[in-house]
Amino acid sequence: MLRRTLLALALLSPLAAHASGFDAVKPATPAEVQAAQAAGKAVFVDFKADWCSTCRAQEKIIGEILSEDPTLAQSITFLSLDWDDYGDDPLTEALNVPRRSTLIAFKGQQETGRIVAGTDKAEIRALIDSLR
Fold first, then answer.
1. Are 121 and 66 within 8 A, CB to CB?
2. Helix, strand or coil for residue 55?
3. Listed residue (61, 64, 67, 66) closest to 76, CA to CA
4. How many whole angstroms separate alpha carbon 27 and alpha carbon 45?
């Protein structure tokens, strides 16, 4: 019985870490993104769709990074915009977001970098680090 319990905990702990890290990414509206930018915050924006496998891979990596360094969520505002709802939004068009699975980092209004459809952990980490 103890062996099964330990095995279950070992299998579930990466999922718990992922969930706790990804909880820092909040679903948002374009107005909320613009408000965070106007306030001069460091903002990481994930343009995603629930049905997108690349988006899910990016979410997993972002969750891992946030789980490894929880202090990131204290200094950076992590927001996601649903592509199905906001793909044609004026903000999306103004930012020249070409597709879902686009990650953009901002310091206030200034873009510090972006990744389109990339799932390399080091690249995503570097994008997040551009906000420090």
1. no
2. helix
3. 66
4. 10
According to DSSP, the β-strands at 42-48 and 77-82 are: parallel
Gap between the Cα atoms of 127 and 89, Å rounded = 24
Closest by CA to 131, choosing from 58, 42, 39, 61, is 42
Alpha helices in 69-120 (DSSP H): 72-75, 83-86, 90-94
Q: What is the pLDDT of residues 90-132, one digit of tens each?
A: 999 999 999 999 999 999 999 999 999 999 999 999 999 999 9
- Distances in Å between the Cα of 81 and the Cα atoms of 19, 68, 71, 95, 117 are 18, 24, 23, 13, 15
